[in-house]
Amino acid sequence: MEFLKRAEIQESDQSADTEKIVKDIISNVRSNGDEAVKKYEETLSNSFRPLKVDEDEIEESTNSLSPEIKTLIERVVERVSSFAEAQLECLTPFEKEFGPGIRMGHKIIPIEKVGAYVPGGRFPLLSSGPMVVAPAKVAGAKQIVACSPANYKGGIHPAVLYGLKCSGADHIYAIGGAQAISAMAYGTETIPEVDVIGGPGNRFVAEAKRQVFGKVGIDLIAGPSEILVFADETAEPKKCAADLLAQAEHDPNARALLVSTSRTIATQTIEEVNTYLKEFSSDSPAHESWINMGEVICAESMNEGIRICNEIAIEHLHLHLKDSRSIMDQFTNYGSIFLGADSSVVFSDKVSGTNHTLPTQKAARYTGGLWVGNYVKVATHQEITGEGIEYLADHSTKQSNVEGLEGHHLSAAVRLSDM
């Protein structure tokens, strides 16, 4: 393994400061409700507007959109919803007999109150709202509360707002940052308390989700975007470079990595990235991202390349290989995998239907991305009758004796005495 380009910044050590700032915000919002939320919106976001987005504002905002933009958003909602519906079909309730008189199973129960966080970011991402809200709607949530920063002319960008409404959000609030997560977790005079919070965000949002976990459920903690392009000698450097920069432009802290079994392809891709960047606007985050976070690695073999990919556990793994599908199963740690050079990550970012809220910072080692399953509970049930009572009660009394648990022994024994 050889690095042709290393990241200038290996880690951003802001965790201690971020943790304290967020802890104070959560405590204040929990104690002071709307008053605290408004204070943070004013001081951190320069927003002095009402917290809730009412129907008149939604209608006015919707009317400002062209029919073409509305169609694009509606298509995203339809495709994300369709994929979520297909996933939900895989979650099957069941009940069966596990011995005479012992029936057990599970049910799939929707989570009732969902909080959806949709970042404002540098660009109005049309797909962000549907990605978080549509799966919750498909899952059967009774109430969906959505928060997004008021960073567009004193409100939420019309395209983002329309996406939230089309996806099924019941209440929409122009609030961002850790204060939004806090408000949804604990509730305020205006903002309903929820049961689970989904959606990506900056380091303050991610830290807030980490700190409120337990009080509410969360989907996952998703940070700045990541991509690893794995290329062999058949790859096209121009496509590799374009795919790297598409994710690099999300955030200055985004990570764009190339792993290649071909030194020639790796070198040419670096050249193409530098050529493309000359045409990017000077304020594009892609410049800083590539300089500070970008990496290019030459692998000695395909096996070593696969090992590197699995160790990095990237958010987006894009295989620019001669036959990606034949080795797909050898990759085990990724948020979402893209098979073949033309399966652009951008398609998933926008409209293909798979969710673009995915694990970062090696979280792909233990979780996948946001999906309809984040908004349901798999709850078990059992019914014990007849021979099942005698069998289980006999075992339970004996085990309780060994454990020294008198109450457990009693609860099982009274069933035996009834028989």
From TrEMBL:
Pfam families: Histidinol_dh. Substrate binds at S225, Q247, H250, H316, D349, E403, H408. GO terms for biological process: L-histidine biosynthetic process. One of its GO terms (cellular component) is cytosol. NAD(+) binds at Y117, Q179, N202. Keywords: Metal-binding, NAD, Oxidoreductase, Zinc. Coiled coil: none annotated. Belongs to the histidinol dehydrogenase family. Transmembrane segments: none annotated. The active site is at E315, H316. It comes from the Bacteria. Its cofactor is Zn(2+). Binds 1 zinc ion per subunit. It comes from Halobacillus karajensis. This is Sulfopropanediol 3-dehydrogenase. Zn(2+) binds at Q247, H250, D349, H408. GO terms for molecular function: histidinol dehydrogenase activity; metal ion binding; NAD binding.
